[in-house]
Design a protein that fits this description.
The complex is a heterodimer of chains A (472) and B (103). With 472 residues, chain A is α/β, with parallel strands linked by helices. Chain A contains 15 helices and eleven strands. Classes of the chains: A alpha/beta (472), B mainly alpha (103). Chains A and B meet through helix 9, helix 10, helix 11, helix 12 and helix 13 of A and helix 1, helix 2, helix 3 and helix 4 of B.
């Protein structure tokens, strides 16, 4: 189901938005009891919006580039009146009084939100097993994880419940589940998409981006959600990039570096897929070279100090006062403490404590300060690499999807699954994951393309070439 | 680098939990201490680096103050905001007593 074609058909009156949305709910009803990609559905709201859209189309109105396209929204993006829980007990049942900017833009483009998707609590995790409301299963094998933290959004697209969904990527939370579920996932340049209404995890790293079944649909969705937003002071003063119109410009003459540091620890089948993707790019006229950026090896440890430090500060707002869970206590500190203790899950507590420690007197410079300096090294190393290549190719994840329960007891093993995706976030750069064949276990493999700030147009062109050359 | 972080103790974990307004059972203190030590051990590669003279990066883009024209615009609807509050009294957030009795 192509989102682009669906939108064209709806706009041309070939199909009604109501029919398209009803079909999406039928697919959800058929598969989601098993997969559990969605935490909540917005059936009446979505069907009502679709009917209203159909009336406008009948009246000859142009209703936007995503006319009638059903979309899943990760449960950390605010939507007026719809429960936005971040898969956490502390926000269970919370209905935001405002729309995130991405929601406003989707509505203006004619897209129809069908529900909120499951995730690791507060986007902290790599398997969606940290959701307070149950795990999501990988549509390719229900005994495997879909990846995380945007596992519900990836699984919903992979299981053809919706053609599009939104995720957020702080250390790989879009690209990693996209790879494990066999769909396209994009982490845009930091600041290209407004974070207004995205529940904050690590503000200097968080970025919203698209999931889709193909590169073209992902490009279309990114065009819709990108652009400057006065409500987000970190949003770049840039217009939305033109991506779909430039998709087929190819890669002739483009310099692409295969980065050995983004293959470390990769299983044989993943490494083979990256080599084959490189051959596809070379066959299409790109100039391939092998590069090494050893500084990327510092990414994991820098990230697991910086992200928890920012999270410990951001999550201080959950105090039982203005919204969310309150557990009463004799004084205000007891009320705060009881609410937080009852509301947060283990991984969130771990990261809050880690961040609090890394920021505390006596340790600040040794941990947080040192991690921030390592971040500078990584940014400088990327800048040097982009002096001689236009894009970088590597693995998205070291392996295909792992089993449910396989790593959930061992946070460190879980963190390792982000090793190839983290450096991009630290640098604020864009990167995407494109499906490329299957592993020996018949599970999907994703290859990752990275580029410098605002190189989205080039990234999508190369991704399109890889997609067209991928094994069937 | 001035400090040399020592291995995280159970007392450290109790301390940061208190700072972060979390209560941990004794079992949790043991488990979290071990897990957090593991993450901090991961950071040993950073501790070993000499990064003197490298500027820290707090944010990926060049941040500066963002100003807007001083115009009155609509803000969130008060009733909608209070509708999400766990406890309100007369259009105010209600919390347990903060100020103690006079000594």
């Amino acid at each position: 189901m192509s989102a682009l074609r669906t939108a064209q058909d709806v706009a041309d009156g070939e199909r009604s938005a109501s029919e398209v949305v009803a079909e999406s709910f039928r697919a959800i009803d058929q598969r989601d009891a098993e997969i559990h990609a969605f935490l909540t559905l917005q059936r009446e709201q979505a069907l009502g919006e679709a009917e209203a859209l159909d009336v406008r189309i009948t009246n000859g109105e142009n209703v936007g580039p995503l006319a009638g396209v059903p979309i899943g929204i990760k449960d950390n993006m605010c939507q007026i009146g719809e429960v936005t829980s971040c898969a956490s007990r502390i926000l269970e049942g919370w209905r935001p009084p405002y729309d995130a900017t991405v929601i406003t833009k989707l509505k203006a483009a004619g897209a129809i939100a069908v529900g909120k998707t499951n995730m690791d609590e507060f986007a902290m995790g790599s398997s969606t097993e940290n959701s307070a409301f149950g795990v999501t299963r990988n549509p390719h094998d229900p005994e495997k994880v879909p990846g995380g933290s945007s596992g519900g959004s990836a699984a919903a697209v992979a299981a053809s419940m919706v053609p599009l969904s939104l995720g957020s990527d702080t250390g790989g939370s879009i690209r990693q589940p996209a790879a494990l579920c066999g769909v396209v996932g994009v982490k845009p340049t930091y600041g290209l998409v407004s974070r207004y209404g995205l529940v904050a995890f690590a503000s200097s790293l968080d970025q919203i981006g698209p999931f889709a079944n193909n590169v073209e649909d992902a490009a279309l969705l990114l065009e819709v959600i990108a652009g400057h937003d006065p409500k987000d002071s970190t949003s770049l003063n840039q217009p939305a990039p033109s991506l779909v119109a430039h998709l087929d410009h190819g890669v002739r003459g483009l310099r692409i570096g295969i980065c050995s540091d983004l293959l470390q620890g990769a299983s044989d089948d993943v490494a083979t897929a990256v080599a084959q993707a490189a051959a596809v790019l070379q066959g299409a006229g790109a100039e391939l070279s092998e590069i090494s950026i050893p500084e990327l090896g510092l990414g994991l440890s820098a990230y697991y100090l910086i992200a928890p430090a920012e999270a410990s500060s951001n999550l201080a707002r959950y105090d039982g006062v203005r919204y969310g869970l309150r557990v009463d206590g004799d004084d205000v500190t007891a009320m705060n403490t009881r609410s937080r203790t009852a509301g947060f899950g283990d991984e969130v507590k771990r990261r809050i404590m880690l961040g609090t420690y890394a920021l505390s007197a006596g340790y600040y410079d040794a941990y947080y300060g040192q991690a921030q300096r390592a971040r500078t090294l990584i940014i400088q190393a990327f800048a040097k690499a982009y002096g001689s290549v236009d894009l970088i190719l590597g693995a998205t994840t070291p392996t295909t999807a792992f089993g449910i329960g396989e790593k959930s007891g061992d946070p460190l093993a879980m963190y390792q699954s982000d090793i190839c995706t983290i450096p991009t976030n630290l640098a604020g750069h864009p990167a995407l994951s494109v499906p490329f064949g299957k592993g020996v276990d018949q599970m999907p493999i994703g290859v990752q393309l990275l580029g410098p700030t605002l190189s989205e147009q080039r990234l999508f062109q190369a991704a399109r070439v890889i997609e067209q050359g991928a094994p069937a | 680098m001035s400090e040399n972080p020592t291995s995280l103790s159970e007392e450290d974990v109790r301390h940061v939990a208190r700072l972060a307004r979390l209560t941990l059972s004794d079992d949790e203190v043991g488990r979290f201490t071990e897990q957090l030590r593991g993450v901090l051990d991961l950071a040993a590669d950073l501790e070993a680096l000499n990064l003197d003279g490298i500027e820290p990066t707090a944010h990926p883009s060049e941040l500066s103050n963002v100003l807007r024209t001083d115009e009155v615009v609509a803000s969130l609807n008060q009733d909608a905001v209070f509708a999400a509050a766990p406890k309100i009294i007369d259009h105010r957030f209600s919390v347990p007593k903060i100020v103690g009795d006079a000594p």
